[in-house]
Amino acid sequence: MEITDLTAEVRKENKKGPARRLRQQGFVPAIFYGADTENIPLAVKSADLLKLHKEKKDHAFIKLIIDDGGKKTEKLSLIKELQTQPLTGKLYHADFYEVNMKKKLAFDLDLNFIGKCVGVENGGELQHIKRDVKVLCLPADLPDHIDVDLTNLDIGHSIKVKDIQLPEGIAHLDPPDAAVAAVAAVRVAKAASETAPAEGEAAAPAEPAKEEKKEK
User: What range does the domain containing 19 cover?
Assistant: First the structure.
């Protein structure tokens, strides 16, 4: 299990004014909480959080190194929520949830699709419906990802959650029949226009010309 260090400071003021000033100074207001701990208001550098987000480590385990006026403590956590401002896209607030190594938690486990899909070779189109599955396990048992072999997936077939074998100690939380990948048939557009006659079909005979009646 990968753990990333992140430095944070304890916030002494929790009102909107101080939080606004923190953002102007390059910090993101945050909160640390858990089932067995009191809430701790924090301030985290915006650049550090952005780096975690870009490296896709905001879903990984984070060791918070919390500075409370020179006294430092360490807390293992996960980012439960990362809020951004709708117009600017800048980070607005972060929620850190305490991880207890002895208690099972729900995690999003990444799927790593492998193998050359037979359905694609037969002219089908591969559809990735889910990129991760929700599982329940102890933090130490969580792998970085789980491999899903697509080799035998043919046109019209799908791989479902129940088809994914997980290591011992890990259980699925998603519906068993939920599809994670499928191969669909590709629709072929008609080459001929609708007005052209179908193959093997004779063209309609021309209407015979009417003979003019001779005047007597």
Answer: 3-98
